[in-house]
Amino acid sequence: MTHLRWANRWLETGQGFPCLFHFFTGFYCPGCGGTRAVRLLLKGDLAGSFQYHPFVLYVCAALAVELGIWAACCFRRSALGRKEVRYLPGMERRYRRWVAVGAFVVIVNWIVKNVFLLAGIDLLPPVG
């Protein structure tokens, strides 16, 4: 029940848990902006979500692709009369690529936001 109260407060006010890395160092951590990006995504603001943390939209797109592949494999399984689901060849290699691209997005996002912060431009203003 406590989790539901916290989630409701978060959706209404946008006040979540503060980032301790940012609090102690003054710099953004690799995940800073992720919670605000999810909040904006839940409200339907794709551009705002991308501004706060592009990784959130990347994960949503990767999950949509994975769900499509899984559905195709299940359809193929039922059409061929097989009991087990077999993924398409080369999926492990694709997964490694997706993880590498995701890590690249997080690292570039982290560097860009901290460079702008050092220049006096805050790219993560509070969501109103």
Commentary on this structure:
With 128 residues, the protein is mostly helical. It has one domain (2-118). It has 6 helices and no strands. It has helices at residues 2-13, 20-25, 34-42, 46-52, 54-80, 91-118. Helix 3 (34-42) packs antiparallel against helix 4, helix 3 (34-42) crosses helix 5 and helix 5 (54-80) runs antiparallel to helix 6 (91-118). The longest helix has 28 residues, at 91-118. It is elongated, with a radius of gyration of 19 Å. The model has no long low-confidence stretch (mean pLDDT 83).
Short overview:
The chain is mainly alpha-helical and 128 residues long. It has one domain. The chain has helices spanning 2-13, 20-25, 34-42, 46-52, 54-80, 91-118.
Distance between the termini: 26 Å
Portion of residues in beta strands equals: under 5%
User: Radius of gyration over alpha carbons?
Assistant: 19 Å
Shape: elongated
Structural class of the helices, strands and pairings?
mainly alpha
What's the story with the biggest beta sheet? none
Overall mean pLDDT stands at 83
**Overall domain count:** 1
Give the helix tally: 6
Any low-confidence stretches, pLDDT <50, length ≥5?
none
Number of strands: 0
What letter string, H or E per element, gives the SSE order? HHHHHH
Give the % helix: 55-70%
InterPro entries: DUF2752
Keywords: Membrane, Transmembrane, Transmembrane helix
Transmembrane segments: 55-77, 98-121
Protein name: DUF2752 domain-containing protein
Helix-strand blueprint:
Blueprint: H1 2-13, H2 20-25, H3 34-42, H4 46-52, H5 54-80, H6 91-118
Helix pairs in contact: 3-4, 3-5, 4-5, 5-6
